[in-house]
Amino acid sequence: MIEIETNNYVHALAYQVQKEGKLVCGDSFFMKATAEYFICAVADGLGSGERANDSSSAISEVVERYHHEEVDHLIDRCNHVLKDKRGATVSVFKVNYEKREFTYSSVGNIRFVLYSPSGKFIYPLPILGYLSGKPQKYRTDTFPYERGSRFMIHTDGLVLPAIKSLLRDHGSVEEISNHLESYTKLRIDDLTYIVGQLS
User: Fold this and answer.
1) pLDDT at 187 over 80
2) For residue 18, what are the contacts with CB-CB under 8 A and spacing of at least 6?
3) Residue 78: CB partners within 8 Å, gap ≥ 6?
4) Which of 14, 58, 171, 199 has its CA 20 to 30 A from that of 31?
5) The sheet that has 191-198: what strands, in order across it?
6) Residues facing 43 on adjacent strands
């Protein structure tokens, strides 16, 4: 499945495929470009199949409903919605166009990298573990970004040896996605990635 979200400030492409032999994907995502901000959430339900999808879908639904809120509130809502579910690793990423900055919070092994045209990479470190509705500490970081920056966020189903050179050496979101095609064929897990460029 491929989904594209675009406006004058952001162009993002999401790709998702379930684990070989499974009917549903245990990953879920939500992304939305408004006139003021771009919001993106990626969740990887523990395990695979329907129960994993139940957890990850709850994340994308709660972020879709409350996407206007700040990231620290959203990650807390994500934790609460997983009470009595299997649990999920979760990342929430929100871009403020006017301030030209983004806020990021993550629990678990979802990876995020942003590459700036000046050559700088930003790789916020997540909190270890996963969300399950239990009391949880979060870390929310805000970073400035340059016009033309490219980013990628992906679940652990995508194994990339050189994510930084991928963002640095390919000019467009579509080129990056085309380059990733060979890696999506080797899947032994649910796989989701979102690549984007900020204008």
Assistant:
1) no
2) 24, 25, 26, 48, 190
3) 41, 43, 59, 62, 63, 88, 90, 92, 131
4) 171
5) 2-6, 10-17, 191-198, 150-154, 111-115, 121-122
6) 28, 90
Looking at per-residue pLDDT, the higher value among 21 and 156 belongs to 156
Length of the chain: 199
The DSSP letter of residue 178 is H
pLDDT at 34 over 80: yes
Beta bridge partners, 76, equal none
Give the pLDDT of residue 91: 98
Q: What is the pLDDT of residues 10-20, one digit of tens each?
A: 999 999 999 98
> Which domain CATH number covers 10?
3.60.40.10
User: Which sign does the torsion angle of CA 158, 163, 40, 135 carry?
Assistant: positive
pLDDT for 163: 87
CA dist., res. 147 & res. 127, Å (int): 28
Domain that holds residue 19: 2-198
